[in-house]
Design a protein that fits this description.
- The protein is an alpha/beta fold.
- It is about 50% helix and about 20% strand.
- Helix 2 packs across helix 3 (about 75-85) and helix 4 packs parallel to helix 6.
- Bound molecules: ligand C2E and magnesium ion (MG) (3 copies).
Length: about 270
């Protein structure tokens, strides 16, 4: 740039941290408009019964397609949405969209499948959370038996808060899974006390099946079986991983080895061919 231009410009000191903060504040501003501008969609990833190969469920995963930046990963926008509270609106949208889609597939004659929806801490602790979920089910007409909510271990730390909520969900016929199991540093006490349907082994353990990780995976599967919980291994990418999980009689698997998360129309092709 010329000397004159330089004199009229602000000189940003662009440390990595500043770039990140700037980027974050852009995303934060744009997130709010993104919902109105229909930039969010859901992709669905099959959860497969390991023994039979039959598809048991679909996990709904939020996608944000920014008009200039392209797809922005949930690991970038979900934490921001949780921080600024936008997750409440986004979470309600995801839930409604997932239930609506599941019902539409049933109405089209596809075999009814469980639909799993990720719920963030901030959503889950809302006093009206269970009521809101029930309203969405009533509104979309989806049978609660087909809805599964994925929550994380860290949300179980407040037993007083959690237990009544989980019981209320169970009474409404809605099942709950523990996502990213094994990474949450929480007491395991809740596992025997709370109504939970599935443990999802975090993909970090499956992705690198070292001797240590293999032992952890085995221990989680044993624990799940002893507590009468179903267990899903996440992030399965290879036949070696599959074989290992088959030996341990893991119930369900989810990962790129079987299918990536897909938009609804690709899910239909996938269901037609399986
Ligand atoms: P998650 O719930 O544990 O979802 C699994 C993530 O693993 C997804 O990433 C999925 O695309 C990815 N994955 C599946 N199979 C494989 C595999 O074989 N290899 C590898 N490397 N990855 C695999 P995604 O879609 O980027 O989502 C990341 C996280 O963002 C989710 O982790 C979940 O915690 C959060 N998230 C996504 N959608 C929502 C949502 O609607 N609401 C909330 N609260 N969180 C969401
Ligand atoms: Mg999940
Ligand atoms: Mg997970
Ligand atoms: Mg995760």
């Amino acid at each position: 740039m010329t000397k004159e231009e330089g004199n009229h410009r602000f000189r940003f000191f662009t440390s990595d941290l500043q770039v990140k903060l700037l980027e974050k504040s852009f995303l934060e501003m744009e997130l709010r408009q993104a919902l109105d501008n229909k930039q969010f969609s859901l992709h669905y990833q099959p959860q497969i019964d390991l023994a039979t190969g039959l598809i048991k469920g679909l996990e709904a995963l939020a996608r944000w397609e920014h008009p200039e930046r392209g797809f922005i990963a949930p690991n970038r926008f979900i934490p921001i949405a949780e921080e600024n509270g936008f997750i409440l609106q986004l979470g309600a949208w995801v839930l409604r969209q997932a239930c609506r889609q599941a019902k539409a597939w049933q109405d089209k004659g596809f075999l009814p499948l469980r639909i799993s929806v990720n719920v963030s801490m901030r959503q889950f602790i809302q006093p009206a959370f269970v009521e809101d979920v029930k309203k969405i089910l009533a509104e979309t007409g989806l049978d609660p038996a087909y809805l599964n909510l994925e929550i994380t271990e860290s949300m179980m730390s407040d037993v007083q808060q959690c237990q009544p909520k989980l019981i209320e969900l169970q009474q409404a016929g809605i099942s709950v899974s523990i996502d990213d199991f094994g990474t949450g540093y929480s007491s395991l006490l809740y596992l025997s006390k709370f109504p939970i349907s599935h443990l999802k082994i975090d993909q970090a353990f499956i992705g690198e099946l070292s001797k240590e990780n293999s032992m952890i995976v085995k221990a989680i599967i044993d624990l799940a079986k002893n507590l009468n919980l179903n267990v899903i291994a996440e992030g399965v990418e290879t036949s070696e991983q599959e074989n290992f999980l088959k030996e341990l009689k893991c119930d369900e698997v989810q990962g790129y080895y079987y299918a990536k998360p897909m938009p609804w129309n690709e899910v239909e092709k996938f269901l037609n061919r399986t």
